[in-house]
Predict the structure.
Amino acid sequence: MAADGVTARAHVLAPARLMAGPARRRVDWSGWIAHAILVVAVAMIAFPLYYAFVISTQTLDQVTSLPPKLLPSTNLFQNYADAWTRAHMGRLLLNSAIVAVAVAVGKISISLLSAFAIAYFNFRGKQFVFWMIFVTLMLPIPVRIVSTYQVVSVLGWVDSYWGLTVPLMASATGTFLFRQFFLTIPDSLAEAAQLDGAGPLRFLWSILLPLSKANIAALFVILFVYGWNEYLWPLMITNSPEMRTAVIGIESLVPRTSQLPEWNVAMAAAVMVLIPPVAVIVVMQRWFVKGLIETDK
Amino acid sequence: MKRTVFRNRWLPYVLVAPQVAITLVFFFWPAFDSLRLSLYRASPFGDRLIFIGLRNFERLVGDPAYLRSALTSFVFSFFVTFVGLALALLLASLANAKIQGLGVYRSLLLWPYGIAPAIAGIIWLFIFHPSYGILPWLLSFVTAYQFNWFLKGWVAMVLIVVAAIWKQFGYNLAFYLAGLQAIETSVLEAASVDGAGPIRRFFAITFPLLSPVTFFLFTLNMTFSFFDTFGLIHSVTQGGPGDATSILVYRAWKDGFDGLQLGLSAAQSVILMALVIVLTAFQFRYAEKKVTY
Amino acid sequence: MRALRQGCAGIVTLVVTLSVVAAPATSWAKTEIQFWHAMTAVLGERVKEIAAKFNATQNEYEVKAVHKGSYPETLNAAIAAYRAKQPPHIVQVFEVGTQTMLSSGAVFPVYQLMKDHGIAIDWNDLIAPVKSYYSTGGNLYSMAFNSSTPVLFYNKDLFKKAGLPDKPPATWDEVEAMAKKLQAAGAKCPSGSAWPSWVLVENMHALHDQPFADHGNGFDGLATALKVNGPFGVKMLELLARGAKEGWFSYNGRLNKAEAMMGGGECGIFLTSSAYMGNLTRASEGKFTWGTGPLPRMSGFPQGNSIIGGATLWVLKGAKPAEYKGVAQFFKYLASTENQAWWAGVTGYLPLTNAAVKAMEASGHFQKNPNQRTAIVQMNSGKTTPNSQGIRLGNFNSVRDAIEEQIENILSGKKTAKQGLDDAVAKSNEILKEFAALYK
């Protein structure tokens, strides 16, 4: 999870090497098999989502009838419109967006600053701060549920954007990632900056940040997805429907009890909710993969 | 390694202040409060707080339902981790050829990572629906057994295991693919020249070489299934039927927020904390002694 | 790089602006009364409606009805707010939270509220089960709002198909006989029930004048032991277990999950809250017809009465005296016969005063909606005894969970009725003792 883990993984996941020799001739045959298997894997992974999409286009009768139909139907607009209005999707998506962006930006900013301080300064209590940050890895939300709620309610932050975002903003992995990265930056840069009379903040802003672009992007993807998909925290901390995030808010559409089995509307809602984080992953996939390899949360 | 440091008295403190502040207020304070609250019997409105020492822990340890919940958590995590990794490794091995477009496949398999466990759960909930789900319908051609997860605990367990594995699958596969691609074929070739068949090669060489990846994924999947699957349980089974899918995290939340038994919930949080510490220490200890090869 | 920085700055600005803009606006003119509730969908609309109607009748106070999630979530929200010293004025709490509220020291009893403001309400006109459930020493502590009681629903079309007359069963023997015929005719759920603990244990005990817990079901002091594993309880569950095994009684989940089966037209005979009528009307429209009847009785046991479910409105301490005046006015408005009749008519909940019942009778409402009369008739024909005045337990939510877990074990055949009930009692007693220990 921290420095050594990162090194170990970087070692393990070194890029593939080209091989010469008789092995290559066999590759064509096994290449076809490999392609076939991967295609099947992709199809199987994609099927539930495809099926969910199909359901989200069906009418109520089609949903409850067997055998199941596997081609999209015609009720798409109606279902999505229904899901939008009934779950107040606009508000939910807005809340999720606010949480995702605020948490990502907040975590990145805060960990950048801390990592910078740890990597480039000697100060009393540095070791203590380092270990304190590390310990937070051992305190995921579920182990501090009730008490964090009490703390937040004492602050009066229950059911507010502050309560939704700030408590999620401390990130050990971000700090370690940036610290790790800063340690790989040649000393000469820092020396040159000092010689030029540039202060530390100037150095951070003009030199370190541009160099850290890739890491920042990587972290952004991971944290955006994390913030968007957070469930337990928003569930605890919000009560009013207008403060809920999307992953929780669509629960009211999931047919459970005495409602009609409107799975078509529920699936429409599910699709709407999963598109933004998946889109972020797809669009920023290069950084996402890098981010996965460098972090683990 | 010589490091250039900036000499500035107060700046570093300012820089770490936000993180320290948030960590203290939202991590340490609640953690200590959990520890403290776990030793009390607390009324919902906060008007009564009675010190009872370790009584909450005694209650938990002596409660068969809690022990069952712990077992459920381990069973769930075991299946998600073991089956998830095995499938990913199997697929990665079969697909491990020097082919073009591996990156494309990887992206196509990774995107479920962006789906919240709760959403994955809702989708699979419908697929498993006893009345109109496609899976029971398909199974009805094979057997007359009613796969009603409402009533049968093990079906509910299968449901959440499948949803969790599905979500994590691409992630596991991506790491294994990368790990396999990093293994030098020369080693494997040497072994096949020596007469070792593909299966032997796999277990004697590939698998051990993959152990850092396996270990990493193992810890990750265990942590994920213990803690991050709360949303899945809450939105799909609510711990049911009975308590068949009531994992430790869900129980802790339920006792605290539904049952308003704050001290008991805090005690459960403390136990979970101990568990995380063990997992983290375990991972760290192991990561220290890297596999050398 | 610059673009990234600017983008970030832009995003942060956007986020801050949105969070400020999105904060709810407060109205400055009138005194605001915060009313937190857990009603969703149509019922939620009705709550908004009645608050709006009250606001329109005067200029001093504005009641803001805020939906805070489910019943447990609403209660948690209120507790958190109370601890942060910003409680809502009114909070809707489900009936199982009654003891929690009473013991909390955080409530302003309704009878006191009304007395302080010189508003005379005829408490004696409240229908007996409602009055008894929420009163202590003859004084009402929380304002009755949405109460229901379980009744029997039956699918007329399935009855016809099975060759049964269009009449609901009155006893459990009849339920068994009819359900067997329904089963033979192919019904997926010949008989079933929602709210397993509330209907099959709590109400069945009250209906047959059997004690549910000690200390007079918690009315004479904090209950510490359940009594549901007595001969009646065991007999009841043994019957249902046999029904499940033989296939004429179908279990379909806790809470009101099973209602989906009734709404889907699969159930012949079904027991659930009278408040289900609204949803059932919508679900069955154009698909099947249904009727209602009183809960079935088991022969050989005395007559009691069914107990209520639903929620009431509690007033929390910590607000200003001027604001409490507004709360009192709102409650006076709610308690008026006209509004009671309206509310019960549009929601399907019980009209809470006898006067309201008479008004609805007079307006012909029950002629048009005969099913809504069933619950009232059932309550009026029962006998309110100490065992049927209600149930008041601390941590009742957890107790219900414990009972329902064992019901599932019994119905699935994992445990015998006696064993399951004994286990439920053991677990519940522990929960009750924990609560009682708080207030020794």
